[in-house]
Amino acid sequence: MRNFFFLIVLFFLSQWLLKKLRRANERAQQGDAQAGSATAGNGGTRRARTANGGGNGAAAEATPQLADPLIRCVQCGVHTPRSESIVVAGERFCCADHARRHANRPTGRDAR
Ligand SMILES: [Zn+2]
């Protein structure tokens, strides 16, 4: 009798796992599409973050680690997840402070 019960639990567990795997696959594809549009503008990353924090619980759950590659900060060289990095003028930074510092820094043309 105990074995029978165990089998039922196992069955539900495998079903749940399969569903989860399929969802993860779908979300990974969606995440790629979102990431592509996010790189288009400066506000992209910020907008994506607020969307996650908002009422859409499914989106907050759908942050696959594979679709969030590490990015090197141009100012300090620290590696940050892309969702947390800031893009300014095509350069990526770990925080707004470093983006400002990099912008204030004289360009090579002016220094010479
Ligand atoms: Zn930095």
UniProtKB/TrEMBL annotation:
InterPro entries xrefs: PP0621-like
Annotated segments matching region Disordered: 27-61
Entry superkingdom: Bacteria
Family matches, as NCBIfam families: PP0621_fam (NF041023)
Protein name listed in UniProt: Pyrimidine deaminase
Source organism (scientific name): Caballeronia insecticola
